Amino acid sequence: MTNAAQPSFEILEHTADVGFRARGASVAELFEHAAEAFLSIAAERRHAEARATFDVTVDGDDLPALLVNFLEELLYLFDTGRFVPVRVQVEEVTGSSLRARLSGEPRDPARHPWRLIVKAATYHGLEVGEHEGRWHARVFLDV
Amino acid sequence: MTLASRLQRIDAYRWRLPRDAAAGMRTDVIVFASKAIIDHIAKDQSLEQAVNVSTLPGIVGPSLAMPDMHQGYGFPIGGVAATDRDEGVVSPGGVGFDINCGVRLVRSSLTRVDVQPRLRDLVNQVFRDVPCGTGGAGFVKVGPNDLDHLLRDGARWMVRHGYGEARDAEFAEAGGALAEADPGVVSDRAKERGRTQVGTLGSGNHFLEIQFVERIEDVVAARQFGLFEGQVVVLIHSGSRGFGHQVCTDYLREMGGAMARHGISVPDRQLACVPVRSREGQRYLEAMRAAANFAWANRQGITHFLRQSFAKVFGRDTGLDVIYDVCHNIAKEETHTVGGRARRVLVHRKGATRAFPAGHPEIPAAYRDVGQPVFIPGSMGTASWVLAGEPGAMAETFGTTCHGAGRMMSRTAAKRGRDVKSVLRDLEAAGIVARSETRDGILEEIPDAYKDVDEVIGVVHGAGLARKVARLRPMGVIKG
């Protein structure tokens, strides 16, 4: 469970761009909160509804690469109009692969515009780690 | 000891960080900056990033930084590095996610007085005709079989298909298309993202501004560029959109795995690189050129719809001609004289603009006597500059100058305590009409978020990298 005193994510500052710090009780929850942070920055989801599901699998050499690749997957799905997630559920995550189920709908760009066009999730200042049983990550986005 | 404390002042415009300032440096870092600017630069991680660049295998000459330098990803924004064609590396981080992000300046036969009474109509019309791409596709129709041709021929493909005039492509860096682009090494994902985005501005710091020539500083060059005082011009700042972003992402991933095979390690994962001559290096460069060509096609599409907007509002030909089109995120193979001999190098320009001097064969014949035109957008609502390349750039910076004012305030800080209505009111009080698809588009790009563009220009002019030709002031702003 997320500690009520500690939000699941917060937005960070970077001179040219934007970032976030996310937390979770497990790697899976951390990745869910990171996805939520990313989508809250990038996507206008006021008019999006959870009427369909979309399964994604992602791999990466290590946890930081896995997180970058996961966010890149969400970015790709949104940019091409394939899907706008309302909810993200990470069903399985290992050190090098991840399976998630997205609930949402195909993106209609007029109703689900970009809030801020994100170019990429970057490795700059990227952190993924565990401290006293809680997981945290820091990610900067190039916008 | 901090890196900033190791900076040695060379003269009024140059600073050196010697190669013994940090472990692993293969060469000095040279920063072009005034005292006021260097104090800003020292506040973020950009010096550390310029030091990281100096560790790249095969770097030729110093790791260079322009006065608009600020913290980026891997390379600092405003960073320049040449690597040996045969012994050096290529780094996608030295180009950036927005491959061939660049600036095109279009002149008109109209004056400020002609446009002022119709300004609001004009801004609204351009806002309709040139989408930012946040909420839909661009108006350029590119079929699935067309895209590969567009990726090879860039702006020329657009002109052939009715989006512009023949001279438009001639007056672009590289003629609006780099040779040796290979759509075959570009992922399906990049193509899927790119196909519907030709002719869209993008968001962030991308914009289209209707401006007027406030002041001419170099009468001869201004005449060659077709500029006169009071004239209305249009500055287009955009790049390769989702296509280029995906190409960079794909190859960063590929290189991350390939580096170990080539025995290369770098201090920052975002600086991933491989030998220029390696298969991965060549594939990246072929894909990067395809993305560069996509960006030129994109700016050409925007130009086409811009002409339609002017025609609709003024009901006549308003003489919209492309002055030139420069890229400021690119890696190009060029010949430069280093230590008295000609060497083939790969020049990475990350937020830096090519600035070839008079006489260079790659400049259009019409400008060859005065030097290559360079366009430096300032922040929204302030000023932009037209410069011309100078011999000093060839001597010191691999033919390169700055690219912008340089951000110094985060987007979050820019929004704090400000509301969009008051920003728009301030702009209107200064005679500027602004439209944005998003509220944040205006707030995040407030003038206070940037360094003073005149201070930046003063450095490159004073250092002899590029000289002042004309100062431009905005009238209308269209943003993502």
Features:
heterodimer; A: 143 residues; alpha+beta; five-stranded antiparallel β-sheet; three-stranded antiparallel β-sheet; 2 helices; 23% helix; globular; B: 480 residues; eight-stranded mixed β-sheet; seven-stranded mixed β-sheet
Structural commentary:
The complex is a heterodimer of chains A (143) and B (480). Chain A has 143 residues and is an alpha+beta fold. Chain A has helices spanning 27-42, 63-79, and strands spanning 9-13, 18-24, 52-59, 84-93, 97-105, 120-121, 127-131, 134-142. The model of chain A has no long low-confidence stretch (mean pLDDT 93). Chain B is an alpha+beta fold and 480 residues long. Chain B contains 15 helices and 19 strands. Chain B has helices at 35-41, 46-53, 112-115, 119-129, 147-160, 166-170, 188-194, 219-224, 241-261, 279-314, 391-396, 411-415, 420-429, 439-443, 453-462, and strands at residues 8-9, 14-17, 29-32, 59-70, 77-84, 89-90, 102-111, 207-216, 231-238, 274-275, 321-327, 329-338, 341-350, 353-354, 373-376, 384-389, 400-401, 433-436, 466-479. In chain B, the strands form 4 sheets. In chain B, strands 7, 8, 9, 11, 15, 16, 18 and 19 form an 8-stranded mixed β-sheet that branches. In chain B, strands 1-2-3-4-5-13-12 form a 7-stranded mixed β-sheet, with helices on both faces. In chain B, β12 and β13 (341-350) form a beta hairpin. Chain B is globular and about 60 Å long. The mean pLDDT of chain B is 94. The chains are: A alpha+beta (143), B alpha+beta (480).
Q: Which ranges of chain A are low-confidence, i.e. pLDDT below 50, for 5 or more consecutive residues?
A: none
Q: What percentage of amino acids of chain A are in beta strands?
A: 35-45%
Radius of gyration of chain A: 14 Å
Q: Residue-averaged pLDDT of chain A, rounded? A: 93
* Largest interface in this structure: A-B, 32 and 44 residues
Largest sheet composition of chain A: 5 strands, antiparallel
Tally of DSSP helical segments of chain A: 2
Strand count of chain B: 19
Instruction: Compute the average pLDDT of chain B.
Output: 94
End-to-end span of chain B in angstroms? 42 Å
Low-confidence stretches of chain B: none
Tell me roughly what share of residues is in helical segments of chain A.
10-25%
